[in-house]
TrEMBL record:
Domain LUD: 104-205
Originating species: Streptomyces racemochromogenes
Extent of the signal sequence: none
Matching InterPro entries: FTHF_cligase-like_sf, LUD_dom, NagB/RpiA_transferase-like
SUPFAM superfamilies associated with the record: NagB/RpiA/CoA transferase-like (SSF100950)
Name of this chain's protein: LUD domain-containing protein
Length: 210
């Protein structure tokens, strides 16, 4: 039995006889305005920019050329298993498959990573990854210094966090991203790239509803 197993067993024993928790009221606003899909996307783009993410817009035809430009300074690019192959068809960066055996040192040597996402939240400027096939394992988006994330709009954009929670699976490894990784010291000097990518490019991919 591992230490984790022992801790969880103690929690189960301690809570086995606990009374049922009272219901949590859900009377808060689920969304703070009425918006068209275009207005929701514009709000997402504005909030992403406030967080110092670099926002780009394109359609399927223009995506390969845009990704090639964003990766022009990259020697290598991490590729999740189900990333659409044509996305990187115009890029000169050498693709690196997402291998479970890759060490942090090997991942740190990769220039960039390109992923899709689970969804994006307009009111908070947040992108959520859930480890899906076009996103790969969590660590491939945390170690490389440059993350390019493609968000299909309007299908993957919601207005609010409550709406996002309705669509996300809590059993999956969720990563919530609001801009590039950053922190501040006691003097409020901002430092980027401390515990995640220093540069976040977000591509809003215009994908008409099927």
């Amino acid at each position: 039995m591992t230490t984790r197993d022992r801790v969880l067993a103690r929690i189960r024993r301690a809570t086995a006889q606990a009374p049922d928790a009272p219901p949590v009221p859900r009377d808060y606003l689920r969304v703070h305005a009425t918006r068209t899909p275009a207005e929701t996307t514009d709000l997402l783009a504005a909030h992403l920019a406030e967080y110092r993410a670099k926002v780009h817009r394109t359609d399927e035809a223009g995506l390969p050329a845009l990704l090639a430009r964003l990766l022009s300074a990259s020697r290598t690019v991490l590729v999740p298993p189900a990333l659409p192959p044509h996305w990187l068809s115009a890029s000169d960066a050498t693709p690196v498959p997402d291998h479970a055996a890759s060490t942090p040192h090997e991942l740190d040597a990769v220039s960039s990573v390109v992923t899709g996402c689970a969804l994006a939240i307009a009111e908070t400027g947040t992108i959520v990854l859930d480890g899906g096939p076009d996103q790969g394992r969590r660590r491939i988006t945390l170690i490389p210094d440059h993350h390019v994330c493609v968000v299909r709009v309007p299908a993957q954009v919601v207005d609010s966090v409550p709406q996002a929670l309705d669509r996300l699976d809590p059993a999956r490894p969720l990563t919530w991203i609001s801009g590039p990784s950053a922190t501040s010291d006691i003097e409020l000097d901002r430092v980027e790239g401390v515990h995640g990518p220093r540069t976040l490019d977000v591509v809003l991919l215009d994908t008409p509803a099927q």
